[in-house]
Prior knowledge:
Helices cover 36% and strands 22% of the residues. The chain is α/β, with parallel strands linked by helices.
Amino acid sequence: MEVPQPFRTSPTTLLLRLALALALTLTGLLLAAPAGGAAEIRNDETVRVAEGEVVDDDLYAAAGEVVVDGTVRGDLVVAAGRVTVNGTVEGDLLAAAQTIVVEGTVGDDARVAGQALYFGDGARVAGDLVAAGFSLQTRPGTEIGGDVLLGAYQALLAGSIDGSVTAGAAGLALAGAIGGSVQADVGSDDDVEAAWAPATQVPVPPVEGGLTLTDEARVAGDLSYRSAAEASIAPGAEVTGEISYERVVVDDAEPAGPTGPLAVLLSGLRLFVTLLLAGLLALWLIPRTVTGTASVLRTRPLLSLGWGVLAIAGTAVAALALLVVAILLGIGLGLLTLGGLAAAVVATGVVLHAVLVLGLILAIALLAPVVAGLTGGGLLFRDPAPARLGKRAGALALGLLIYVLLRAVPYLGPVVALLVALFGVGALAVWLWDVLRRRRAHRRGRAAGLPPGGTAGPGAGAGAYPQAGVTPYPQAGTTPYAQGGPGSYPQDGPGPHAPAGAGAYPPSGAQRPPAGGDVPPGGSTSARPPWAAGDRGPGPGPGADPDTRT
């Protein structure tokens, strides 16, 4: 029998693979759109598939708690605070939650991300297990039919794993049968002592730093690991293949700042305060931009994600191209002995490059988390578009708190930051495009002689300007003044568009009638409104573009 060969994956490649897997998992959770109605979508405080209930299609669920006691014949895609699978999922399990408990059967792969990941004695996963979070525990009765790809702070792997294990963790304990090889990058006891995490809803087993093999450990292939210290291998543990150890040199220099839980707490607090202050300032200075972008993110997430990728990539490419073009133009002008012009061109290119880069950084680091936090907090408050500043501030604070907590989860934090950046920047790009499109349409309407909100032709409605061929003022023989009788002059009133009544003014340029009340020959048809000569005219009428400022 040929012994499986160990993996030769570098730690960097391992982390990249894990980040890619989690990005795909979370993207599926947030964006997976079932085609042709071949799925069931549930959204409530608690989503439950009762015992004996059968869901014939894929199940997409978002709730505070999701419990599956019955059967899901397709995939289960879920985002919740707690996920419990006691029944059967015949397809894939894609879950993101604080706590994930699997006691039932998963017919294909399981891709899970969260704080505490627990697979009980009755858990069966027919395919691969991809996991990321604070703690992963598989009990002695757990059965994994494929490989295990793990990125966590700590992990205790018992039960049976038919495939191989590729892991990156501060502490990893093997206490079961592994049919393939094991490749691990592990930490040390100091790393474990410095860890901190919020309280979990299931017990988290204590795992020592580094690599540990208990008496129940059985590895059919090779064992390859990198660590600052050698593995602790119990006498009863069995490794069929070779054991390969690469020592990692640790810098013993004293850290310059706080370490351990205090460092994590201070880092999260600084990030939360920074984002909260930036968000409150943005809500005060540019409220329409922030609320409009949040509305786009809430109503058009798929479009926001696509535009986010295009906007970030396009801005980065444009900034680099601008700098290269400026330098090439500067060299060319210098060869033409136009040194002064060359210096001006290069300086302009450098400034524009810096503006683009700075704007992209601010959008990714500040505006995108603020928009995502405002959107998420509003949804949790059951008020997606709060009108008052106080409610907006509360929703923003709640959303940012959740964002900062997710950022603190090892390996999951960078993925969350990437997704928030893509969604936030994309929503901003979509909102700006909508604003520019409306303003262009507004300007075309004004150029065609239409008022803001008005329409062409007679009877165009309130706010319409007089059109060509239409006589907006009284003709000869009519009295343009109201209820005053012959000889009466208008009082202070609303202006030339007011209906006939007391206080109506005559049109600009029209002569007042003589005292006898007779109208001059020709009436007031030669009069023009005061804005016909280039003035702005009356303010916007009904239907005017509300986005007059950002």
